[in-house]
Amino acid sequence: MRRLLALWEKECLALSRDVLGLAVLFLMPAAFIVVMSLALSDVFKGGVARQTEFAVMAADPKLAERLAQSLAGDGFRAAPAPADEAAARDGVRRGTPSLVLVVPRDFERALSAPLDGRNTPPKLTLLADPALPPTQLVAFQQRVLGVALGLRVSAMMRQAGLAADADALELRHAATLNVETIGSTGRPSSVQQNVPAWLIFGMFFVVMPISSLFIVERREGTLARMVSQQVPFSLLLLGKVGPYFVVNLAQGALMLLAGRTLVPWLGGETLALPGRWDLLAAVTACTSFAAIGWGLLVAVCSRTLEQATVIGGVGNILAAAVGGIMVPRFVMPEAMQKLSEVSPMAWALDGFHAVILRQGGAADIAAPCVKLLALAAALLAAALWVHHRRRVLTSAQ
Amino acid sequence: MGTLNLEGVSFRYPGGDAALEDVTLAIPAGRVFGLLGPNGAGKTTLISILAGQLRGATGSIRAGDETLESLRRRRPRCLGLVPQEYAFYPMLTCAENLRFFGGVQGLGGARLKERVAAAVRFARIESVLARRAGRLSGGLKRRLNLAIGLLGEPEILLLDEPTAGVDPQSRAFLLESIRSLAGTDKTIVYTSHYMEEVEAICDHVAIIDHGRVLVSGALSEVIRDGSGLQELFMRLTHRSLRD
Q: Which residue does chain B place closest to A10, by CA atoms?
């Protein structure tokens, strides 16, 4: 135990004097959390908070105003109508407004005509900004068709001599629809996606200080000296696990703090804390073991600092890109979502989301935790095996 | 502990030629044994095998009446290594390095303090204990390297070119110190490229080349013809460049 404590103390002292290493471990994920939480906040708010401007162009200004009033709401805001269609196209090309509905002259008459083969439905044109998210475009299309249907039904009722209340025929008045998000205290927000995502990314970056110090130890002969002092190689590896486990826990605490204080202070949303801290600690611990195992394998396999930087850094970035850290998995196509299941960062993210977003229980984090622990054990065994295969610790010939 | 006997020791790196072939040496206790050879002769390989860094050597290595391996299992601190690299942590202070290397050998509490103090006194590095090891001069780094090797009070001390790259004053100090260690019944194996150093402090020598022992024995016997160690070395290993 005395030898292990000496190894832990040495590792902590060395890390505390590695300013660059500490910056990578703590400042980098914190910066990503703040920047990405703020940058993606609208994407995660979806159609509710995102305001998309639209305009209605019609020959009859009263009709245009009536349609604009009916279409406004739920993230869509009416803007003044452009002077003509050329101005409308020019405005949409620049994104102001994002949508322009062009209503033909005979729109109201066409709505009143029966659909019997001789008449065709009125032809509306919607000019759309190409940068508009497809889901927003589809939502507005459905909104337009809903309003058109209401007007058609109203016209049919008038023709049948029935009293037609235009307001009553709007979709929003058809019924009351409550949306209940299961297992969460609210909608997943940008900060709830980005805090765990970039925390995991930062945790896996322990590969850098672990491997760089290990390579220096091998190159400078300190490793050889310790082996000559009968320090088992497994104890040397264990000497790195303890300090970096503490570092990973500290990263977890600080990144949660960043989500609770720094992001809202800069104008973003506040991170909702989980109900089960024990489960959060369990997921963090399992992620930490996997990250440290990865760091040890890279350290043992790499012969130079450059190799370690390339293998560790590129490996982390690829795992993050595939695993839904950089791009949320729900926006990936199905094939990529399937591929993401091979990334340990995706397993870790599943575990964190189960606790933070879905307020899940132990059963919900069991699968990701088991996968992460199995990976950690495999990586550690691989590191020992590679070392055993090489047999030589020094470059002596 | 008795004489360190190597009998028929051979070693081959995976996929390479033989680095040591049938090396037989008797390294007496309480003496400084000089191990000489050109670059690539197998000196560091032999030191690494003795230090337990390389496995897979054939032959036998015995310390007195037991194998070196069993002695090291029984007394893990019986062997100290001072590699030719500065084998310490440049980002730690000298004191932190000494505490760490003592701790990792299982020393603790008062015993650790006592051993650190003794090693510091021996290497005369009291004035630089609080300085980062990486910022020391070459001579001080060599002295720290030696102090670390002595922390466990080893009976066998392996010194791999311990004076490389130091000024004459530091070299003189290191040689005196090493010579004084032999009087404490330690077995010291000393490798160097400096013949005058070996002649000054070693009682016994061996010259090896291409993994084979060319000559070994008491220094006075090896250079009996009065030709000097340098001339004997060049005659046995030839003048062709090795690097």
A: B100
Sign of CA dihedral A54, A57, A61, A66: negative
Using CB atoms, pick whichever of B48, B86, B100 lies closest to residue A396: B48
Average pLDDT of chain B to the nearest whole number: 86
Neighbours of A325 (CB within 10 A): 29
CB burial string B164-202: b at 16+ within 10 A, e below: eebeeebbebbbebbbebbeeebbbbbbbeebebbeebb
Minimal C-alpha gap between A349 and chain B (Å): 36
- Mark yes or no for CB contact A221/B103 under 8 Å: no
Distance CA A183, CA B159 (A): 67
Q: Shortest CB distance from A6 goes to which of B14, B73, B104? A: B104
Question: Closest approach of chain B CAs to the CA of A221, in angstroms?
Answer: 5
Structure confidence by residue, pLDDT tens digits, A323-378: 988 888 877 888 888 898 899 999 999 999 888 887 788 898 999 999 999 999 99
pLDDT in tens, B172-182: 888 888 888 87
pLDDT in tens, A66-81: 899 889 888 889 999 8
* Distance (Å, whole) CA A150 – CA A172: 11
Q: What are phi and psi of A320, to 5 degrees?
A: -70, -40
What residue type is assigned to position A273 of the chain?
L
Check CB contact under 8 Å for B158 and A231: no
**Chain A: closest CA distance from residue B240 (Å):** 19
Burial status of residue A114 (CB atoms within 10 A of its CB: 0-12, 13-18, 19 or more): exposed
Nearest C-alpha in A relative to B40:
A397
Q: Quick check: B100 and A6 CB within 8 A?
A: yes
